[in-house]
Amino acid sequence: MFELCEAKSGYVYNLDIYAGTHPTNSEHNTAFSVFNRLCDKIKGKGHCVYMDRWFSSPKIFDHLWGCKTKAVGTVMSNRKEMSKQAFSGKLKKGEKNITRGGSPLGHQMERHS
What we know:
This protein is α+β, with helices and mostly antiparallel strands and 113 residues long. The protein has 2 helices and 6 strands, in the order ββαβαβββ. It has 2 domains: 2-82, no CATH class; 83-113, no CATH class. It has a two-stranded antiparallel sheet with strand order 1-2. The longest helix is centred in the first third of the chain and has 10 residues, at 30-39.
């Protein structure tokens, strides 16, 4: 089961039940198709969507950005759409790389006491 939930309350806004197959658009993978259906009604309303690495991809982020919807997520470095430049160096504990469209936007480091 795939769910789109409101972060604070956990309210389930939309869900998609996996029953063995999903209708997909031939130009997009299953993750993109599922995510696109889940977010259809919230696009263009100024929301920010947080997702895990199964959904995260440059295609999904670009699509949502074009629909005036922000997105944040962890990524899999071996996903074929991912820029190799974003994963060129090893990060230390607490460091983050921030990219948009394959170009680095910043490098953030959290300090832990």
